[in-house]
Amino acid sequence: MPNAAAISIEEMDLPIIDVLSPEYSAAPLEVLRHAREAGHGMTKSHRGVEFLTYAWVGSLLNDNRFHTVDAQHFAQKGAPDSLLRWARDGLLLSMEKDRHDHVRRVFSRAFTLRRVDQHRDLMNEVAAKWVDSFAASPDHDLVDDFTLHYPMEVLCRAIGVPTEEIPRFLDAALDLHLLAAVPMAPGFDRIDQALLTLEEYVLDILDRRRHQPGDDFLSGLIEAQALEGELTQSEIAGNVINLLFAGAGTTKLQLASAIKLFVQLGLWEELAAHPDAVPAAIEEAMRIAPVTQFVVRIPHQDVVIDEYLFPAKRRVILNLQAASRDPEMFPDPDRFDPDRVDLARSRLPFGWGAHFCLGAAFARSAMREASLELTRRLTAVTVIEPVEHAPAGAMLGGPEHLRLGFELR
């Protein structure tokens, strides 16, 4: 039974923000700062009660009593069977603990740092290819001509998609961005086709790797199952698809966001001259401009934390954008300072604890290699304004188009 003295977060007198307003679009960080100070780290919006401090967000991210949206949520919206299957079998955060832990163990054993490092040459090769394409493009749009393609191709090839099949696989994988659309329903037909295509491809490649193993991630999954226990076909396909959605989609935006910061802050030539500084610069870019701006969590039962009651089935919003600028964790939070980075503490971009992102090592490595190739090849880099950004209140932020001026070294 919940503590009768606990205060329901939904009944609290909290500041209210309108994330769809012109004021928020113009200065979201300023609005969030005022709300964090006025509401003891909480605020309300049309999305629900939002938590704005690093302490709150970190605690709730790591609380197993809170889950993400599940198949039932999508069913209520009329989603196709393919989306319900993906939500049921591919979203670790919505699974019961025993099943979650089993699936995670298998995937963690397959997606090791060692296996990621084995694909560094692949990342270099693909980065060089797309820098060539970007440099030759008349628009010089880093998103359209580089970050849209580079992480997806690297991930597809690392999974084990044969080179000749990558274009069709990529077309389906790129449609996964519709999973982050609000509202999602208008994209159901394309989402359905993308999920069915990707599921078929993943299971077909998996079957081939059982007879002819390689050094790709699906071969690693087969090895991991021999040690940790079998997964269902749907669990394998669903979680690989989730890696494509969460990994390549967010990496596209986060890499573009980091490059924009490096240029505008005058760091480009310093990073080109000191490539060892690139990893820390990327970490700080993820803190100061996280492209996953918020995540949703839902308690399946009434939860009391301290004196606060979180009602069952009522979603809460963990605002990563605000938490990443929390001065209690990051003194002078608006200052870009790669020297402040502490990977043991600044973990918000990739989740926390048992929910730490399976693709974190891959995403970090891919962004590092791309940044190294771009700074090595380009000089006199400028951002051509205006930059077209995702809406300030969207779940995923960052530049949707980023035109650069530059010279080749």
Describe the model.
This protein is α+β, with helices and mostly antiparallel strands. It has helices spanning 22-26, 28-38, 54-61, 71-76, 81-90, 97-110, 113-117, 120-136, 142-147, 150-159, 166-174, 188-211, 217-228, 233-264, 268-273, 278-288, 320-323, 360-377; strands at residues 7-8, 42-45, 48-51, 66-67, 294-299, 303-305, 308-310, 316-319, 378-389, 399-408. The strands form three sheets. It has a five-stranded mixed sheet with strand order 2-3-8-5-4. The protein is globular.
Features:
409 residues, alpha+beta, Cytochrome p450, three-stranded mixed β-sheet, 18 helices, 10 strands, 51% helix, globular
Layout of secondary structure:
Layout: E1 7-8, H1 22-26, H2 28-38, E2 42-45, E3 48-51, H3 54-61, E4 66-67, H4 71-76, H5 81-90, H6 97-110, H7 113-117, H8 120-136, H9 142-147, H10 150-159, H11 166-174, H12 188-211, H13 217-228, H14 233-264, H15 268-273, H16 278-288, E5 294-299, E6 303-305, E7 308-310, E8 316-319, H17 320-323, H18 360-377, E9 378-389, E10 399-408
Parallel strand pairs: 1-7, 3-8
Antiparallel strand pairs: 2-3, 4-5, 5-8, 6-7, 9-10
Helix pairs in contact: 5-12, 5-14, 6-13, 8-10, 8-18, 10-11, 10-14, 10-18, 11-12, 12-14, 14-16, 14-18, 16-18
